[in-house]
Amino acid sequence: xxxxxxxxxxxxxxxxxxxxxxxxxxxxxxxxxxxxxxxxxxxxxxxxxxxxxxxxxxxxxxxxxxxxxxx
Length: 71
Hints:
- The chain crosses the membrane at residues 7-25, 37-54.
- Keywords: Membrane, Transmembrane, Transmembrane helix.
- By secondary structure, this protein is mainly α.
- It has helices at 3-30, 36-53.
- The mean pLDDT is 84.
């Protein structure tokens, strides 16, 4: 995934988070409550999505032939 696509995906995720969190806060404030656990779940989903977008692949470039299975 290129840098530009990661940046665009990050912006999209953050915008979606703001929209969803705003809807949660709006509906909860009408009832006189705070976002509570639902807000925390959405915030955790934001963190998970951002970590998944920016995750670096593991480079398994070890060229060691000392394994028993490769002999």
